Amino acid sequence: MALQASFLPSALSAHKEGKTVAKDSVFLGAPLSDHLKSDFSPLLLRTKRANVSIGVRAQTTATAAPSVNRSAPEGKKTLRKGNVVITGASSGLGLATAKALAETGKWNVIMACRDFLKAEKAAKSAGMPKDNYSIMHLDLASLDSVRQFVSNLKRSGLPLDVLVCNAAVYQPTASEPSYTADGFEMSVGVNHLGHFLLARLLLDELKESDHPSPRLIIVGSITGNTNTLAGNVPPKANLGDMRGLAAGLNDTSGSTMIDGGKFDGAKAYKDSKVCNMLMMQEFHRRYHEETGITFASLYPGCIATTGLFREHIPLFRLLFPPFQKYITKGFVSEEDAGKRLAQVVSDPSLTKSGVYWSWNKNSASFENQLSQEASDAGKARKVWELSEKLVGLA
Ligand code: LMG
Ligand code: NDP
Ligand code: PMR
């Protein structure tokens, strides 16, 4: 409630200025998704819609950002910012990417976060230009929250140009599984199933985008790829015959692990990354030709300092960064990793679909090879179909 009171004035003043709808999303995101104050939201939403056509189109940028007014005279095009949703933008890679994109002035970054205040603080202390981002509530550990987020975004009237599925949890030290609101093992539930539903529900929005290069990006990782040294550190990713996924990914109906095995948090994370990389390719096969949307995944490098390792033992957190810096040399800073993901979001040379991007020692991007399992089209189809059932799409 406090949130609401404090965000209302700025939301309304943003309207008056006819400047941007970004503030509205700040306002919209938290209260609506928290199921608060639904009584007066329709009024706000109507106001907002009316403003989108005026406010957003009035914005100009200096470079080849998405064009709205395509009939404007050459060199004087009226351009609008691209709208990019980044999940888990309250820390680590997501925050660094949000910052990198917001600073270009060409993007309105919608930070889709489970902890609204944390995100607001993070954005402020990162010094993100406030006209170029907004925050909306999204808890990927709840399918209801995912649906609510999609509905809020649609009702905001903001066109969606790029969706980045970045959020993740990693529970390497958990001896017992934990569960999402819908009863799925947490790592696969958040990292894969929550994002799968989100991406499926937002596909129509991406299709309608008039941006020159709409994209759906799903963050992958080297640790899910057993064709690498890192992917061979035990426990290794392996989806097996997916009997655990088929049975609902919990102890009551079968197993918390996709392959039906005993719970292992580190393996669950790596399995979830395999699902992320498989889903990117399945989206590509099903929708790229028809929609022109670019579907891509990436390994941004080892960002050994992020919150991802918060649940690991202190000794690991101490040694992991120097290990990656000086021994594997796979280390990359949050800032540089953010620039890499920002490239995949907006670089005109990275429009190829179905690609898993990585970066070499000189920080040049290249198309990387996925492991056999992470590029298995049969497995991709099966993950897709089983996941559809679990998230209520089939
Ligand atoms: C699993 O264990 C747990 O079973 C699971 O529950 C879960 O927690 C999971 O991923 C999380 O871990 C992993 C365990 C097994 O690994 C460890 O516990 C080792 C932790 C090491 C972490 C990195 C820190 C290393 C510290 C080195 C010191 C750095 C200091 C730097 C200072 C620089 C100053 C200039 O892991 C293993 O069993 C390891 C075996 C991995 C096999 C990988 C495949 C072949 C490896 C070939 C070796 C190549 C050599 C590379 C150099 C390595 C140097 C350490
Ligand atoms: P962080 O922990 O810093 O960021 C993860 C983000 O996900 C946080 O903002 C977190 O929110 C959010 N999140 C977690 N659970 C939920 C949820 N239920 N709903 C919504 N958001 C949630 O880790 P990284 O930045 O390292 O990870 C980002 C991505 O990069 C992940 O996909 C990870 O797999 C990938 N990656 C990371 C590598 C690395 O070395 N760090 C290497 C390869 C890939 P909150 O701030 O509230 O906790
Ligand atoms: Mg790994 C080139 C070698 C390399 C790279 C790039 C990574 C990345 N790791 C490498 C090697 C090794 N790691 C080796 C030789 C070991 C054994 C000492 C090792 C161990 C290790 C552990 C215990 N590494 C880890 C862990 C984790 O808990 C991290 C993990 O698996 O998270 C799922 C991790 C990682 N190593 C990486 C990267 C990028 C990670 C974590 C990030 C991720 O996949 O999201």
From TrEMBL:
CDD domains: LPOR_like_SDR_c_like (cd09810). Phototransformation of protochlorophyllide (Pchlide) to chlorophyllide (Chlide). It comes from Hosta plantaginea. Its main location: plastid. It is an enzyme of class 1 (oxidoreductase). The keyword NADP applies. One of its GO terms (cellular component) is chloroplast. It holds the Pfam family adh_short. InterPro entries: NAD(P)-bd_dom_sf (IPR036291), Prochl_reduct (IPR005979), SDR_fam (IPR002347). It is found in: Plastid, Chloroplast. This is NADPH-protochlorophyllide oxidoreductase. Its EC number is 1.3.1.33.
